[in-house]
Specification:
Strand content: under 5%
Number of helices: 2
Distance between the termini: 34 Å
Structural class: mainly alpha
Shape: extended
Oligomer: single chain
Number of domains: 2
Amino acid sequence: AFIGRGRTITEAAAFDPGAKLGGHSGFTLDPVAALRRQVRVPANKKISLTFWTAVGANRAELEEAIARLDHPEAFARQAMLAW
């Protein structure tokens, strides 16, 4: 389970050192789509990390969306357009 019995989202079982995601789907009590990436942040530094979900009718449309969203300012622009 991603969160785990008796746990909270801030202390999810998936965040435990050495935890492994099940790699399968199905009915669960705490469904989640999870992407696990390791990011190193130097001490006293800040970073910005954005994950996008994009779809297209074909590969060309998807590649166009990726090209349009592949820069730091894209999130703020898309949030403004969505409002």
